[in-house]
Request: fold
Amino acid sequence: MLNERHFRYIIILAVCGLIIGTWGMGARLLYGHKYMDYGSFVPWGLWVAFDLFFLGLTAGAYIVTVLVYGFRVKLFAALGPLSVFALLVTLLCEGIIISLDLGHPLRIYRFLLTPNFGSMLFWLVAFIVAMWAIYLPTFYLLLREQLVVWSRDEKRPGQKFFRFLVGGRTAYGEEDRARDHRRVRVLSYISMPIGLLFFGMHGALFAILLNRPLWNGAMTPFLFIMAALLSGGALITFLTYLFHPRDDLVQPLGRIVLGLLATFLFLEALQFFVGYQSQVPNFVTSLNLIAFGPFWWAFWILHLLIGSAIPMYILITQPRNTRAVAWACFLVLITFFAVRLNYLIPDLAVYKLEGLQNTFYSHRLRTDYVPNINEWLVSIWVLSLGLLTFFLGMRWLPVEAAGIEEEEHV
Reply:
């Protein structure tokens, strides 16, 4: 559970991360891609892996909001505002990191003003904007009652700001509550197809690449969706333990994460089985790089041991230990980035033509890609911004109070 001391440590850590990461962000904004180590053969590097990581965190929050406001599952009602806020923060981080990877981050609007409807990247940006357009007003509607209450509290810091947010409103009755809940329900219904397309679009972006046998296939979008639900479910379970540490919430979420983990591992094993049985050279080489390449430890130790075997053992043997369930999900969460990076880089690290590496020599024309310090500093900056935004928001906005109110009225 999060106490005042832990909160201060997290804020200090996030501020330090922002300060340290500023060097990398400055280099990226001033010099573009010049001082980054990805190139022509490996054009997608660390930041795309983080984009996929944030995508997964968004998915867990999305599924909880759909269950609460779309299907009226009262069990998770207290988690509704928390999940919506987590979704907005992870969407913010995803939008920043992918805009830095695509090109000039301040020109991302051109995707929408001059759209290419046949481009998967256009739809990726369009669905990020659509999710923001749905969940930002949803978040406001969920918090409005508590914002009115806080705006009347003369002893509360920031009272004038809260009064501004509610437009000077001083009363909030049953009719207002019913109207806002109807609006939230409508937005939740709209989010269902948008969300599924949003999460599936990332997988489709990889699946359509014909010269990438590890990615090219109808199973890739489904694998992406399952990976997103697993990492996102782990995030929501751990956040529930921090802010709503109740057995009747954390333990059911733990069982869901266990089922998602088992399903994901089965699909992953199936991909390895099909790949080796196909005996397609590039496919087999990509799988060998994952399992036996220079970063074999990321697959066997970080992913399978720390991020899968240990959490699965805990979730199976201690399903009624709320703290153990939460920390098992935390292990899944912090190690899942290795899954994203392992899935992304190996298929790019295979030369598609024999002898291609001997034609020209440049560090931009190599496949032995390792993220450099600037790429890591930018990633640290974005992660720190997400941490700072989330925990300060949880402190300064009535997210927890709105969750209690939701549980009473959903």
Notes: Residues 131 and 195 are 7 Å apart (CA to CA). The longest helix spans residues 174-207.
